[in-house]
Amino acid sequence: SLSAGLDLPGRFLFATLTLMTLIAILVFMEEAVYIYRKIPSSKRSIIIWINAAAPVISATSCIGMWVPRSTMFTDFAAGTFFAIVIHKFLMMMIKECGGQKLLLRRFENGRFTISTGPCCCCCLCLPRVPITRQTLFWLKLGTFQFALFRPVLVFLSIVLWTNGSYVLNNLSPKGPALWISCLIGAFTLTALWAVGIMFRKVRILLKCKNITPKFALYQFIVILNHLQTTIINIFATQNIIPCAPPLSSRARGSYITQQLLIMEMFLITVISRAVYRRKYHDLEPLESVAEEPGDKKQTP
């Protein structure tokens, strides 16, 4: 068993990380009760979903740490949940602006800057897109497609893995691993691009809602859960991370990823509680909103 193969420092480390996961879950539960009591019902579920991202990833990482063979399934659960959270974050920015109708009125003559990361940050020649119902629909579709297709692709990879067809090391064009990874990467970049476009437009308006620290926390989760995990997996696949019997290089890489995520998500859970628990001022009435330079003033 796993516990029998651990020495005393290893057991202490596993116990400490498990305790951090439990504390993160308890902090989130207390925060969820506070949100349920204090936040209007129109925003309540969205904010709870966003706050749940870090403790859910911490819990799935803890399960994967104790039960190594469950890694594929815990990654599937964490990835599916966070794909939904990315869509919820976009919807939260729209809600904080007063909803779609009020957002369209506030930025009636405004334009979205689509030359932003992670897809088009270097394409400064791209035109600015008018803010309409149609462009808002495409932004929401950009995050919704990720929440829809990522679980399907990861579930497909699990089915192929159980059949022996999906091998992560095999990145040849004939194998499914390369194509599934490329599709997931494309869907991820599209969703992050949509959120970045919306944030760039509303960050000044929602300054009173402290949207920048909230966006920074969301970005940290993206980087740690995706980029950090990908880099460690590449190192493990190329045997840069040395094996330590009975653990192979890939198994050690998986352990390192899970242990780092537990500590990082614990810190993000605590910081998120402080950021989302603060009381913020409401937006100014529409009549007194000052538009960005180049936009016409709104009429009451």
From TrEMBL:
Q: What subcellular compartments does it reside in?
A: Membrane
Which keywords belong to this entry? Answer: Membrane, Transmembrane, Transmembrane helix
Membrane topology term reads: Multi-pass membrane protein
List the InterPro entries hit by this protein, alphabetically: Ostalpha/TMEM184C
What is one term from the GO cellular component aspect held by the record? membrane
The UniProt record lists the keyword Membrane: yes
Q: What is this protein called?
A: OSTA protein
* Gene that encodes it: Slc51a_0
